[in-house]
Amino acid sequence: MSFAHRVPAELAGQRLDAALAKLEPELSRAQLRRLVERGLVTVGGAVVKPAHKLRAGDEIAGELPEAPARELAPEARPLAVLYEDDDVLVIDKPAGLVVHPAPGHAAGTLVNALLYHADRLSAAGGAERPGIVHRLDKDTSGVLVVAKSDAAHAALAAQFKAHSVLREYLALVRGSPRTASGTIEAAIGRHPTDRKRMSTRARAGRAAVTHWRVERRLRGAALLRVRLETGRTHQVRVHLASIGLPVLGDRVYGGRRAAGDAPGPAGQALHAAVLGFRHPRSGAELRFESPLPADLAAAVEALA
Questions:
Q1: What are the residue ranges of CATH 3.10.290.10 in the chain?
Q2: Is 86 a catalytic residue?
Q3: pLDDT value at position 75?
Q4: Measuring CA to CA, how many Å separate 78 from each of 22, 100, 259?
């Protein structure tokens, strides 16, 4: 994996490692510093130190070495399959299931279940993410598409990049919206002080657009239907929290009350309800829906 950036004017004068933390929010500052120290990042083609001061227009290029692949074991876990053919597999993911192996989650993931279920999966996502084109947070339930071939993976990835995939969520939020619908346009990037969180206050965020409308008004809460125009990390949760409508049970973006307002055993009240895309081989328009899980449906009724 590689990355390349032209230094924007607002980052001129900053240290290389500090600027990279804003330009590459998916990587920690410690990771980026190690890359620079190993000579895997250049500025204008030259190897420099982490404290190197940047100028506007400088060309930054970096290479991320491939991590040694771990042996992934197939696991006989139940999958709620909504659709399957030779190219794609569409599943209804339950809350609490991690999509792919990561630190702290070496097994028991969706990928482990997919390896048991499917005779083949695309390799385009990397050795530890076979078939994975997009992700849902661990505590977010709902519809997710998996690629079974590299050709299908490339076609689906192109649709996600072009923002042509239909993605609608149902979010149970704390608070009462002042209007029946709205649009949030706020760039999202790594939080300026907490690297584990995303924020609309990041200096070098990426453009993000979220549309929402009220499905049902409740006591001190509301059920919203949310449509993503872009797909940034934690976008729904960050955007709704930024307008004072945090997702119930969200312990990261929900504020101090989040620990006490979880609506059910899954905690975070966010569900990927609709996913629509063109079939990677036939081009046919496909649309899949998933109803609210029982615990979230019960939470809505309890607040009615």
A1: 2-63
A2: no
A3: 93
A4: 39, 16, 29
CATH of domain 168-272+295-302: 3.30.2350.10
The CATH number of 2-63 is 3.10.290.10
Q: Which residue has the tokens 């569409």?
A: 90
Task: Using alpha carbons only, give the angle 290, 292, 296 rounded to the nearest 5 degrees.
Answer: 155
As annotated, the residues of the chain forming the CATH 3.30.2350.10 domain(s) are: 168-272+295-302
Residue pLDDT, tens place only, 93-122: 999 999 987 766 678 899 999 999 999 999
The pair of structure tokens assigned to 241 is 């929290």
The angle at the Cα of 16, spanning 13 to 185, to the nearest 5 degrees, equals 80
Q: Tokens 């934690």 identify what position?
A: 234
Distance CA 5, CA 80 (A): 41
Alpha carbon distance 170, 216 (integer Å)? 11
pLDDT averaged per 10 residues, the chain (length 304): 87 92 80 88 92 95 70 90 97 93 77 94 86 93 96 95 96 96 94 82 87 97 97 95 95 73 67 98 97 94 93
List 58, 92, 137, 250, catalytic entry = 137
- Name residues whose C-beta falls within 8 Å of residue 184's C-beta, 6 or more positions apart in sequence: 208, 209, 210, 211, 212, 239, 240, 242, 243
Q: What are phi and psi of 81, to 5 degrees?
A: -90, 120
